[in-house]
Amino acid sequence: MALKATIHKAQLQVADMDRHVYGEHNLTIARQPSETDERMMIRILAFALNVPADEMRGKLELSKGLTDVDEPELWQRDLTGHILHWIDLGQPDDRRLLKAHGRAEHVSVYGYSYSTAIWWAGIEAKLTRAPRLSVWQIPSEQSLALAKFAQRSMQLQVTVQDGGIYVSSSADSLEITPIALKLASE
């Protein structure tokens, strides 16, 4: 018998002063048995960093992710189903990213493993024709520290200011400094 997903709930307060995006979001996360705390928390972080100021062009959603290879971890779709923003985690291959680039207005990747720089060095040249792609590295020691925030029920505050990210809960706080490996040129 297959193991079922574990449901996690996160009350997320976002104050992104760089983009002027503020709001509260209640997330229900279906964490698959193969997903680590670290990966789940990076999904929540990616949500906080990309949530739109309003839902006029569609809302950002957690997708089926690990259970459906044709979907990203998060995406923003408009009311017609057109993909505005495709967000992947980890180290997807160049074919997946180019396919996503053809389907979406913008593609973002958040790598969080110590080997992200090695992965990126191996595929960077293959992605020169993807101007709408942004690739970020979350330093592995910071992503591992973020994993310690994982609970079945979470209340998190994410503040973004001058490129720095501050995550806090009632018990702890953490500063995250993402590294831009590639920024979209549009």
TrEMBL record:
Top-level taxon: Bacteria
Pfam families: YaeQ
SMART domains attached to this UniProt entry: YaeQ
PANTHER family: SUCROSE PHOSPHORYLASE
Protein name: YaeQ family protein
Organism, scientific name: Roseateles oligotrophus
Lineage, highest ranks first: Bacteria, Pseudomonadati, Pseudomonadota, Betaproteobacteria, Burkholderiales
